[in-house]
Amino acid sequence: MAAGELGNVGAYYFRFLPQKTFQSLSSQEITSRLRQWSMLGRIKAQAFGFDQTFQAYRKDDFVMAFFKDPNVIPNLKLLSDSSGQWITLGFASGRLRKI
Questions:
Q1: pLDDT tens sequence across 4-41
Q2: C-alpha 53: how far from its chain's center?
Q3: Which of 10, 19, 42, 63 has minimal Cβ neighbours within 10 Å of its Cβ?
């Protein structure tokens, strides 16, 4: 099975786009509001591309393929509830890896 394929679930291939920026999160007005609400540094946007046309009736397959894709697992960042630190979706020795 090739990278990004999930057999019967779907053959979506995702790629991480680390250079993609989101102006809506970096404007001075938004930065000021995020700081006011204690959210500055606690919200992050990441971009991933995929190789097929999105079809709404296959949304469940799409989501399952996304979270199981080998290009998503080591790159998707999550904010840990317990430590407040950014961690990746990937597992190392049964625990989530810190970044």
A1: 444 444 588 999 999 998 888 888 999 999 999 998 88
A2: 19
A3: 19
| Alpha helix segments (H runs only) across 11-98 | 23-26, 28-36, 59-68
The structural domain count of the chain equals 1
Short-list 49, 67, 50, 55, CA closest to 6: 67
Question: Does residue 7 fall inside a structural domain?
Answer: no
Amino acid identity, residue 7?
A: G
From CA 16, how far away is CA 93, in angstroms rounded? Answer: 23
For the entire predicted model, the pTM comes to 0.69
Please check whether residue 82 lies inside any domain of the structure: yes
* Domain span at 82: 15-96
The SS3 call for residue 95 is strand
Cβ atoms within 10 A of the Cβ of 49, count? 11
Task: Give the angle 25-31-34 at the CA atoms, nearest 5°.
Answer: 95
Three-state secondary-structure class, residue 48: strand
